[in-house]
Amino acid sequence: MTGAVRVFSGGKAKKLLWRARVFSTAGELMRGIMGSPPNFSPALFVFPFQSRLRNAIHSLFCPCFDAVFLDEKLVVVDVKSVSPFSLFVVPLASCKYLLELPSGEALRKRVAIGSRLSLKFVV
To answer: Can you tell me the mean pLDDT for 15-40?
Structure first.
């Protein structure tokens, strides 16, 4: 599953929040946004399975960013502001997806724990 995705707010009145690149292969998941500038394009990580510890992330060689962890139902289970060179960033609950956003984006779009999002994959 590579390509792009549109990320919408959940509920009846879906509002486009971001357009994101999709990372799902082992190489893409490992590299992520390493080496990206601070104003990078949002990225959606699709992990092979839902987990808490196995889907922990790092921020080596990354700019500051917001990490929005989502479960398989696309409910936000954690939001973290991540600094460069953090070695082990673990979500509060198990997740299947991760949105990496430029720093401050989650707050600007009012995405918090318990928010429901929806995805539309673009071919």
So the answer is: 93
CATH code where residue 26 lies: 2.60.120.1140
Tokens of 99: 């949105």
pLDDT tens per residue, range 32-86: 999 999 999 999 999 999 999 999 999 999 999 999 999 999 999 999 999 999 9
Q: Are 32 and 46 in contact (CB under 8 A)?
A: no
Beta strands in 10-116, from DSSP E residues, in sequence order:
16-23, 43-51, 65-70, 76-82, 95-102
Q: Say how far apart CA 63 and CA 45 lie, in whole Å.
A: 17
Rounded to the nearest 10°, the torsion over CA 1, 70, 29, 88 is -170
Closest CA to 63 of 22, 109, 105, 111: 105
Q: Which residues pair with 3 in a beta bridge?
A: 22
Please give the tally of structural domains in the chain: 1
Going by C-alpha positions, the residue among 123, 122, 95, 108 that lies closest to residue 9 is: 108
Spatial CA neighbour of 81 closest among 94, 63, 97 = 63
